[in-house]
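Quick check before the chapter quiz. The format below is the same one you will see on the exam, so make sure you can read both the input and the output lines.
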Amino acid sequence: MILDIPNESIPVLIAFALYLLGVIAFGVISHRFLNKSNFVKDYFVGGRGLGAWVLALSVAGTAVSGGTFMGFPSLIYSNGWIMMFWVAGYMIVPITTMILLGKRLNQMARISGAITIPDVFRDRFQSPLLGWVSTLFILFFMMFNLVAQFKAGALVFQEALRLNPPNAELLGAEITPDHFLLLQFNSQGENKVVRVPFPGKNAKYLNKEIDNEQRLVRCYFQEEKQGVTETICKNIRFPSAQLSIPFLNRKVEWGYFLGLILFALTVIGYTTYGGFWAVTWTDVFEGMIKLIGVILLAICAVRAVPMNAETGSSGLSAATESLAQQDIQLIYGPGPGQFLSLGMAISFFWLWTLTSPGQAGAMVRMIAFKDSTGLRKAMVLVSIYYVFIYFSLLIIFICARAIFPTEYLKDVGTDGQPDSIMPAMARKVAPTPFIAGLLIASPFAAMMSSVAAFLLLISSCLIRDIYQRSINPKASQKRLKIASYSITFITGLITIVIALNPPNFLQYIIVFTGSGQGAAFLWPMFFAIYWRYSTKQGILLGMIGGFATLVSLYVFGWVEYRVHHQEQHWLHHLFGWIPNWHDSRRDPFAPLNLFGFDPVVWGLIVSCLLTIIGSKLTKVDTVLQNRYFPANK
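Here is the expected output.
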């Protein structure tokens, strides 16, 4: 079929093309830096040669991901100013990450020759089991994160492309008992049904009108709020052009499919070919794109807010007044629907500050830096970088809620879901479509830098920790090179297939992978490198305990979500005594927040206690103790 690309999307796509060419150039150049005599060390940690600026932007590039530019903006748009408490802890993440583990982890890795995180655990305690368990946990969390990032990248490009839907005939409309309006279309010879959620539980459907020129249906609803009857219009586009995926037995929107393929092949290509240095230098390039993009977008967003006719205020003040008129909870805590209670605010402060040092991607950067001077400078640089990024995002999407009061809300939205608000704002406030393309490249850059780091991390686990350390210790550099290229490429292809049928959530899965790694690795790594009396049994217990605690609470949340409306379900009788079991959840991936605290709090507590208890009850290996903790130091 011929894709119907709107004329206004052409300049956006040109800007994207220029950005992608820059990324590809870095991958080609980086390939020349690979050391043939020690391919694995150069491919995965760059020969431990990261300076301050490169280290800073590399750390930031790994952390500032699709969640930052898609999930976080959607939460600001939906919940207002309370989100500054959600992300407050992130301002000191560079300090906790680099001070808590940085210098000592780098020293330990140099002593043992470790290249990966499982290497550190394995060599510190001479335990292949620790290496295997940490490898499996990293693979588990990274595959979740990769799918989320691939989906986010595809959605960004889909919004940049914004294909016109094909012409369609509306056959009829039907209201379901669970408050959905089913619009039945004949599109390209096929009957298709579009589910339209009612804007509220008490809303009533009025009528519809068809706009064939704009290729959409306007559906009108009526709802009473605080004694005032409102008429709400939802614009429903004709069904999008779709592509059949035979082996998945489903169809995928063409815009999403093209975005996924372009995003995936670009990031897989430069990561596979250039290795660590390609990832690192593109992190620097993408880091600058992200910073410039959000600052420009913040300026444009403030200028685009309509002036308040009553008070005469403009900019951010007018935006805040608009939020107060829509819902006063958008201004004050705990936010709409008790979004962020005090307990959850404390949880998220600890989530960012304590779990970030436990991220495998961040720890790899700590292994790779050049010297302590560079580490200290990088710590300051990353802190400043985060302040600019997150403060700008907060301003942009507070303004977005004033500019689009309901258009991108989950149930009321007329133009899209909350995750689409970032590219939509770029298109709305940019002075030209070309500049809009450059601004949309910011979230695209965020996802690319994260995906590249995750791909390399997965590849290092499989090649270094499983193949070289366990299966073929005598493998030649040539064989390792071929295996590294192959695994990185194959991992990317597998993720493409999974992302063709992705989960419906984004931010929750990113929080899950971040908090999961922190719960599993933070305390085991901390005690492994600082506590001379830690043992392999204690470290293993702490790692498994933190992992199991956090995953279990997510499983409980998923189960409760599935049976929430079935009051007599046997699971309510079995688990109903658990605190917070009956809490409302916005997403099937939302966890059980025991006593009002996020699972990461409980995962960290269990991991810490089990590591200490397990080490106290088992015998220390004095040979290894003396190697890593010499008596004269």
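If your answer matched, good. The longest strand covers residues 216-225.
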